[in-house]
Structure formats: structure tokens, C-alpha cells
Amino acid sequence: MVEWTDFERQTIADIFGKIDYETVGAAALSRCLIVYPWTQRYFGNFGNLYNASAIKINPMIAKHGTTIVHGLDRAWKNLDNIKEAYTELSILHSETIHVDPDNFRLFSDCLTITLAAQMGAEFNADVQAVVQKFLTVVVNALGKQYH
Amino acid sequence: MSLTDRDKATVRSFWAKVAGNTEAVGTNALSRMLTVYPQTKTYFAHWKDLGPKSVNVRKHGKTVVDGIGEAVMKIDDLQKGLLTLSELHAFKLRVDPTNFKILNHCILVVLAITFPAEFTPEAHVAVDKFLAALALALSDKYR
Hints:
The complex is a heterodimer of chains A (147) and B (143). Chain A is an all-alpha fold and 147 residues long. Chain A contains nine helices and no strands. Chain A has helices at 6-18, 21-35, 52-57, 59-70, 73-76, 82-85, 87-96, 102-119, 125-143. Chain B has helices at residues 5-18, 22-36, 55-73, 78-81, 83-93, 98-114, 121-138. In chain B, helix 1 crosses helix 7 and helix 2 (22-36) packs across helix 3. Chain B is globular and about 45 Å long. The A-B interface holds A 30-31, 34-35, 52, 55-56, 109, 112-114, 116-121, 123-126, 128-129, 132 and B 31-32, 34-37, 52, 105, 108-109, 112-113, 116, 119, 121-122, 124-125, 128.
């Protein structure tokens, strides 16, 4: 089980308490599809992904980005039980969607950069360390049911 | 994942914004890396102070980001342009090349914070590709 300090718990709660899921989700996912274009392989049915401009205004991508960031809710609301909380989603990504788990890391990096741009100087080294740890734990949990 | 002409143009124009700010960007990236990825501190055991105000961190942050600026000018042949630096990292410093990726990520975070409007996904992909190519050139002489 992962140990979390009070600072880490507080920082995570603060961030998720104040971000606009729609803005952050859309920005993070579209950034991921642009910066790591091979991730587009999972979005064949999502309409026009022809270039960066198209991706940025694609409403299906924006909506899905929001869904993904909400997928983090079960982590920050269950910090002491993340592995179990993600069993269902891990099976989904492995058995149904067949996502290479390295993509979770790529998305996490884009989410980190999106949060940094949103939060500015507030996203200092200590906050980044918390976010990095949190996302690493979630990424591991999402990969747990792959076999 | 080689750099297209468009990538190079994007990097040159984006990096021009960094040019006046190398100590701030470098210090931020380096000190951030030392906090977020504590295993990187093993290369700096000889510095007493590893915080963002440390004279050593500030000087070295500037050195690293100035080095990247030099690489931007040699973007058409990074392997040749970074030969000496590669030898330094390979034979003297012996920094495990995994750490180049780690520092690159921290640099991207600092760019996002410092230039939230300009660090668009398009700029991000070009700079990420460039930093990856730079890391490859820097590790060229390792073995």
C-alpha cells in the first residue's frame, strides 16, 4: 500500500478540487494526440484528427479528455486503496480497449504539462513531485491486470 | 523520429524566447529534477545545497540551458556539433542516459509554466523531438 503524507493528500485534494475538468481534460488529451501521434491509433472513430488544429477543436476528443480526467477521481478519492479501485478499469483497458500501458505514461506526462501551464508558479517542485507520485501510482494500478 | 525543417524552424523560434532567461529556466528545471526525481541527486553529492537558491544549482542550470542553446544553433548536425560534450558525458561524467529523458521532461514543465500561451502542443512536439535528438547525440560516444 502506498503511504501518503498530509502534504501529499492536501495537495492532491486541492488540485482536483479546483481544476476545470473540461478544460484540463480536453487540453491534456489533445496535447497527447499531437505530441505522441501514435496514440491516435485508439481514436479511429473520433472524427477528424488530421492535424493539430483539427484535434484541438474536435468535440469528441474534448469530451473524452474530460472522461479520462474524471477517471482519476477514483484515485484521489481512494488514496489508500488505488490498486483495488482500478481493477475494473485495468481489465477494461487490457481486455476490451487493448491499450499499450506505455500510453498511460505518455498521457500522464501531457497532463502534468497541462497542469503546469494552468497553475504557473504554484506548480513548484514539491507540487510536481506529488503529482508525479500520484500519476505513477495510478499508471501502475491501470497496468496491474494486464497479462 | 528525425527533425523536419518545420520542427527546426519551430525550435529556433521558440528557443529565442528562452535565450534571455537561461539562468531562470535552467535553475528551475534542475532544482525541480532534483526534488521530483531524487535519484538524480547522486550526481551532485559534492554540492552541499541542492535547493533552487543554491549558487551551484543556478550556475549549473545556466550551463545546461546555455548548452541547449548551442545545440539549437547546431540543429542541422547534432551528432557532430555535440561531439565534445558527448565525450565529456561519456568518459568523464558518465551520467546514465536515462537521466537525459528525466531532465528533458522537467525542462518541458518549466517551459509550460514560463510560456503558457506559447508552449502550444505544436511547439511542445517540436521541442520534445529536439531534446530527444539532443539526448541521443549526447549519448553517442557512450559505447
